[in-house]
Amino acid sequence: MTLLESDQISVELAGRSVLSQVSLALHPGEVLGLIGPNGAGKTTFLRACVGLLPLSAGTVRFAERPVETWDRTFLARDLAYLPQAAEVHWPLPVRDVVALGRLPHQTGWGRDPEGEAAVAEAMQLGDVENLAGRIATELSGGERARVMLARALAGRPKMLLADEPVAGLDPYHRLEMMECLTVLAGRGMGVAVVLHDLTLAGRFCDRVALFNQGRLVAEGDPRTEMTAARLAEIYRVEALTGEQGDRFFVVPWRRLDGGRSESAEGGKAR
């Protein structure tokens, strides 16, 4: 089953092509990692998928309907977008900020037990229960990132598009964030996440989509697509790859002047 699908989409900004003929299907119950160098088109792809950027060609469908035909409120109930470095502009308690994620579901001003349960669950998933009474604008960057994730989850969407949600988090909370996304996928949610941390992408993603220069250049299992040779070509780094138990991992090891080296052809960690 396909939940969100782009069909040959292209985006132009100020007359310049920034995304070109990208076709990609996003499924429920999986974590899809969007990886690639800076400026490769990952954020543009997410923003185009939720209708925040106009398409110069192609179509995006959610639940088999073109995104532009959806009522925005109804679309927001099922499709959540967490932008990169999402800011908190409201000097409100954290719990109230998380509860804003329920606005697309709001039909009146009476008590909403289901909404209250969803907010409580989202705060638990985002590990922000201990911040419930804190003023959101006074939080650290990492704390704000977790609050904004909880806000996105409060709506109980069918799909979450998250742009670098681990940026600014310490190692513990980076792992916690990715474990949270894995739990959500295990419950049937579709998750697409932009990552610059190749180690996390290899470790947690069911599939990866590799972007470069506005194009989708590879898509599939991290083990087959995140090869040392491909990472050398795209990122200009030598990477070590290996297995720990049943988990695949990638460790960027050193920069490459020319983008490839003989040692990158093997690249297996010993």
Automatic annotation (TrEMBL):
Taxonomic lineage: Bacteria, Pseudomonadati, Pseudomonadota, Alphaproteobacteria, Rhodospirillales
Position of the signal peptide: none
Record's keyword annotation contains Translocase: yes
Function (record text): Part of the ABC transporter complex HmuTUV involved in hemin import. Responsible for energy coupling to the transport system.
Chain coiled-coil ranges: none
Organism in which the protein naturally occurs: Limibacillus halophilus
The keyword Translocase appears for this protein: yes
Domain of life, source organism: Bacteria
UniProt-recorded name of the protein: Iron complex transport system ATP-binding protein
Entries under PANTHER family matching the protein: HEMIN IMPORT ATP-BINDING PROTEIN HMUV (PTHR42794)
InterPro entries cross-referenced by the UniProt entry: AAA+_ATPase, ABC_transporter-like_ATP-bd, ABC_transporter-like_CS, P-loop_NTPase
Gene Ontology molecular function: any one: ATP binding
Record domain ABC transporter: where: 4-238
Pfam families: ABC_tran
Keyword terms: ATP-binding, Nucleotide-binding, Translocase, Transport
